Predict the 3D structure of the following.
Amino acid sequence: MMEPAGAPRGQRRATDLVSGTALRVLLWWLGHGIVLASRFSAPVRLQITRSLTVEISADDGPARHWVFDGRQRRASSAAGHAVTPDLAVRFTASGQALHHLTSPDVVDRIMVGRIHGTVRVEGNHLLLMWFRGLMRKVVPIGPAGPVRRALPGAYVHHDPAANGVEEILVEPAVQQLDPRWTGAWNARGKLWIVRGANGEPMQEP
């Protein structure tokens, strides 16, 4: 909850108490939601490909961190600060944290807060987009992503009877390019990844 300007001290304390409690509830929900999703949701498990730690906290108290196991594709969570997080998002106040985390544009708001000094993002900033995807699978705020489906009429198998603007010549597999294919050899000579893997000398760019 955002604190009203010029509010009396007692009212500010009440607002801070409500904001802190609400943020703890939100972080608890996100914490246990991601943990459960990592056990039963295939899309969430597919997103957990690395072992890392993420923390979200506020300077006035609430904090929670998540530990992701890339090998088992599982997540665990606990209240409090992480020892060495790979990504830490630290807000100056619980009200700011609530305002940003419940916004459909959470990443944009966090970056703006970082510029204004109300948010500190420590560690790998690219992980913020990744963690935002996990958050939205637990708390679906904002528009959902497009549904993935196979494109109609996909050409997945060779069909000799298929109509096309030109013929497709299917050559047998070979171990080495035919020396007579000068065009192919010239193209190969430009591929650094092929030449380097074979130990061939390469000129400086």
Notes: The first helix runs from residue 9 to 40. DSSP finds seven helices and five strands in the chain. The longest strand covers residues 52-58. The mean pLDDT is 82.
